[in-house]
Amino acid sequence: MFPKEKYLRLGELLVKEGLITQVQLDQAIRVQRQDGGRLGEILVKLGILKEEQAVAALGKQLNIPYFSQGSELKPAMDQNLSSFIPKDFAAKNTVLPLSHTLGSLTVAMFDPLDLILVDNLRKLTGCDINPVIATKSDIGKAIEKFYGKSKIFEEAVEASYDIISDEAVFESLETSDEELSLDKLIARAEEAPVVKLVDLIIRQAIEEHASDIHIEPYKDRISLRYRIDGKLYEIPPPAKHLHLPIISRVKILSKLDIAEKRLPQDGAFLVRMEDRSVDLRVSTIPTIYGEKVVLRILDRSAVVLDIGQLGFDLKQLEQMRKAIIAPYGLVLLTGPTGSGKTTTLYAILNEIKGPTKNIITIEDPVEYKLEGVSQVQVKPEIGLTFASALRSFLRQDPDVMLVGEVRDLETAQICIRSALTGHLVLSTLHTNDASSAVNRLIDIGIEPYMVAPSIVAIIAQRLLRKLCPECKEAYEASEEQKKKLNIKTDLIYKPKGCSKCNQIGYRGRSCISEVLVVNEEMRDLIGQRVSFQRIRDAAKEAGMQTLYETGLKKVEEGVTSLEEALSVTIGVE
């Protein structure tokens, strides 16, 4: 039995919801009888109701999802949706394709009751139409943004084809007239269409919240990929012959030598986008088919430097906070590259900084600038290394020192000695779990009797993708899964995919961790040079939640899928 609200007329529903009064409804009905038209539009024209309120109410009446402007009215990437509905048709009929799944096309409409339009869409696209409802103005803005961007991208590529379509241009790079070829390449890299194309690639990556852009040449094509939430996704690439101008444009922006194609190079540049600045770090390497470039996107506005919002378990968060307010000692963060260690370190500094503390960091590179913290960039070419900077730090009367990474014996020794002589030292180490960090320090060359009293806590962490809250699907865990994996809940969730998450099924990432608090028993074991497994067992007996257990908890809470949790914790349990 359907709820009674479903059978309410729109006017009755609006009155019931408290959006209009009965008097206002009667006024609108009189206008409707006199002039005709839809009730919702009349209420908006009379100024009684806002357009979005009318459309949201109509969606509720028809049991059709209401989408507002923003991430909801954002067509899925990499589905070539503009080929299903051309811009002219979309603009004329105020419709916007959002996603395509298994022969079904989700389309935003302001009037889903227009059955003729729905039928025309079905014939035009060859798909079943799944309508969602949105305001006319919101759809109009989204159409301009979507088709405008697609058109600009297409025009940039087409114009670049016209400008750079002769293979002789690239063959000329192999001739003796190298200077002439280089001048030509610079000129072509700065042609408006090439500039526009590179700008669009960067802008789209930032809008999709990508962390990296990969541009890689192959024998007869270019691969263009964005890394989003830790995974690489293919993007429709430009033509092969645009590779050299694109790479040259990126090199010009990052002040690299465009004539040097045989050696790796590193550079950086700043992009201003709307009201924020975004840093891009550039790395090039020579491959057999030409240079590959990777651009790392550092969008400070998208990073939350609050350890309470990074996804840590409440018990682990309490242990971390207790460790970082210690007056002295070594706090280590461990995990593979890309596991969020640097972000956590910055969040810790953000929490403990204040006018009563002198905090100094040595980093390679300095990724985020923090107010109230003295940050130093490593420069090995002039002798400014982690070790040399740390020796100077001790004469700067520090309370807290952050060392970007413990890479060698000398750096490790200074960190340990500083921790033993009244300083709080924060640093990172590349190990799979928390207990392995102790053995890594001993393997580097630090004596166990130095390691044992210096370490306060070791935090191992990983990043896992969060399920999209709009489309995640619940299913019942099998008895075998419950028994084998120790799942304590009946329902767990899996990804599905919708327009909000670009059909990926995941949106955003959360941190999982294990926090090894070094107590007296642990110090005794470290002094005895026991295996990391003995240390791990002792930590678990003392109440440490492992990475696997923390990941499984996220599965039980519906934050992530079982497959995602297992993929990031496999090999550490």
Protein structure class: alpha/beta
List the strand order in the largest sheet: 12-11-13-14-10-15-18
- Basic shape: globular
Number of helices: 22
Task: Give a written overview of the molecule.
By secondary structure, this protein is α/β, with parallel strands linked by helices. The protein contains 22 helices and 18 strands. The protein has a seven-stranded mixed β-sheet with strand order 12-11-13-14-10-15-18, sandwiched between helices. Helix 14 (386-393) runs parallel beside helix 15 and helix 19 (520-527) packs antiparallel against helix 20. The protein is globular and about 90 Å long.
Question: How are the secondary structure elements laid out?
Answer:
Elements: H1 10-16, H2 22-35, H3 39-45, H4 51-62, H5 87-93, E1 95-101, E2 104-109, H6 115-125, E3 128-133, H7 136-163, H8 168-171, H9 178-189, H10 192-207, E4 210-217, E5 222-228, E6 231-235, H11 243-253, E7 265-273, E8 276-287, E9 290-298, H12 314-324, E10 329-334, H13 341-352, E11 359-363, E12 374-377, H14 386-393, E13 400-403, H15 409-420, E14 424-429, H16 434-444, H17 448-454, E15 455-467, E16 473-476, H18 479-485, E17 491-494, E18 506-517, H19 520-527, H20 532-541, H21 547-556, H22 562-569
Parallel strand pairs: 2-3, 10-14, 10-15, 11-12, 11-13, 13-14
Antiparallel strand pairs: 1-2, 4-5, 4-9, 5-6, 7-8, 8-9, 15-18, 16-17
In short, what is this structure?
The chain is of the alpha/beta class.
